[in-house]
Amino acid sequence: MKQILLTNDDGFDAAGLVALQNMLKSNLSDVRVLTIAPNRQKSACSHSLSLHNPLHLFKISDDFYRLEDGTPADCVYIGLAKFFSAMPDLIISGINYGCNVAEDISYSGTCAGAKEGALQGIKSIAISQFYAGDSLDKYGYDLACKISINLIKKILNNELQIAKKEFLNLNIPAVSKQDYKGLKVTKMGQKNYDVAIKEAIDPRGRGYIWIGEPCVKCESANDLNTDIGAILNDYASLSAIKFDATAYESLENLKKCLQ
């Protein structure tokens, strides 16, 4: 029997996770799906592991667990160590509430769940649903589930290959099934983030800082070959993400500077 490990960064009761669980169960009855998800919102936790505090795992139902104060990377790490004598065939992280494109990938807990799987040599995919206004209230996760299950079946049947130390990053546009234009293979786009904080005084007179909503400028919004451009123009985006972040084009210049 093939096996899938499922996690997310929005929490064990998030609508996107529940929708994907139901889709997997109804379409892959011969595949074991084990879900381990954080007990609360962990967006933007990136690839952090909880090395300095103990974690507590609670069973919700058969093959469904929540990890108290754990990150998506924790969920994958613990899931692999505790529940699988042989590695699963696929790790899925999502469906995330909001897109994970361009520089988002560095911050994303959703992408980190897939990245942890890739580090362990397991095929992995991160899935995120872009939203705009009340688009999710209107359309839900139906389109995301439809696109995802087709890709998941291809991965499990070895029709879609994922290279070692890489994971797939899937982003779904904020449109109805009728307005969806198709799936594009894309590269990472580019965003420019401004920094923004909000400072205030709590009821006990103590100052606090809240990281605010940054102003984001998308440099590649009109480039359909990028993840940003695709989802902003009603296409789904599929990218292959690797770990090697070396700026090879800068190495020779560094060597010259050190001579």
Automatic annotation (TrEMBL):
It catalyses: a ribonucleoside 5'-phosphate + H2O = a ribonucleoside + phosphate. Its EC number is 3.1.3.5. GO terms for cellular component: cytoplasm. It is found in: Cytoplasm. Belongs to the SurE nucleotidase family. HAMAP family: SurE. Nucleotidase that shows phosphatase activity on nucleoside 5'-monophosphates. This is 5'-nucleotidase SurE. The gene is umpG.
